[in-house]
Amino acid sequence: MSEITTDWTKQEFKAYLLSYCAKSNFFESDEEKKEILNLVSNETYDKIHKELGRDNDYQSVQKILHNLEKFNYSKDELNRLVEDVQRLFMADGTIDLLETNMLSALKRLVS
To answer: Do 33 and 99 contact (CB within 8 A), yes or no?
Structure first.
């Protein structure tokens, strides 16, 4: 599926996915960062956030696809990931059009 691979743990993948989604509107709010830090450690967040900053959009999507396949998530686990993203988007009180589009794309990706 993907020529890009990672050696992440599930928590590192979750941090990457959430950080990528948070930046879907080109801005990660303080509230979104706090929401991510409620789910992953500061160390994991910092490590993954640096990596995300070096990746282009294609690389990010390939890493997400690779890890979805690698971890073989159950339907319930995939639903929880989507719910985590929904909570992330609501952390700053609104879901804008770009976040809505990202959520739709994520739902299609995991279905």
So the answer is: no
